[in-house]
Amino acid sequence: MIYTESIRSALQVSIEVHEVSQQQKRKGKSIPYITHPLTVGLILARSGANEETIVAGILHDTIEDSTNVLPVTTETLTARFGSSVATLVDSVTESCKEQVWHDRKNQALKRVATYPHESVLIKSADVISNDWELLDDFHKEGNSVFDRFNVSKADRLLQQHRMIEALLQQWPESPLAGDLRAVSIALRRHIAGPGPVPAGDFTARNRT
User: According to the model, what pLDDT value does residue 98 have?
Assistant: First the structure.
């Protein structure tokens, strides 16, 4: 089967966490948050990822975004989907949300060096979904899109380029490597504008 019980169950849990329990929205917009994990799942399916990776992608924000009303933990995911899926979700979860943004994002960057290929795919799909959405919104709203974030435009873009570079270094032959390069170049071309390339920005070496 292609549309398996595990995938149906992952969709159900993700919808319950992001939509039913809190009607979570995309940052600064009225669009339901559930559109993001669904997009991640679609990207992973198109990349040829296996079922467990697709399931983990659909669930990738459930631990991080769950509430006391509907808590999701590694243990609850293990009980429902098995330890492999739970471990993948945990690997891409930013668990210390009380930390300042820069510290939290630097920790996330360091974790990429420990990622197996499945985690690289999930995080890549997450980045691709977020960054193309950011680009689409930028074309509609201009620099005001960055008012949604608690950090500067420069910091937000530099973090995304560093994450893309880390993912490419961890798995250069990833099925999503081309998509990562494409969105990074698009960010540089359409948003960052002219000027020096920030340290760590791989587009200086891969510009078209």
Answer: 73
Answer whether 181's CB lies under 8 Å from 168's CB.
yes
Is the four-CA dihedral 17, 19, 22, 26 of positive or negative sign? Answer: positive
CB 154 within 8 A of CB 196: no
- The one-letter amino acid code at 32 reads P
Show me where the domains of the chain are located.
1-93, 94-208
Q: Using CA of residue 168, residue 174, residue 176, residue 177, what is the dihedral sign? A: positive
Query: What pLDDT sits at residue 140?
Result: 93
Phi, psi of 96 (to 5 degrees): -110, 65
Residue 69, SS3 per DSSP: coil
Residue 15 belongs to what H/E stretch? helix 5-15
Joined tokens for residue 130:
């977020």
CB 107 within 8 A of CB 160: no
Residue 193: the pLDDT is 60
Q: Which residues of the chain have pLDDT under 50?
A: 194-208
Other beta carbons within 10 angstroms of residue 125's beta carbon come to 29
Predicted structure pTM score: 0.91
**Among the four given CATH numbers 3.40.50.300, 3.40.50.620, 3.40.1360.10, 1.10.3210.10, the one describing domain 1-93:** 1.10.3210.10
Distance of alpha carbon 8 from its chain centroid, rounded? 21
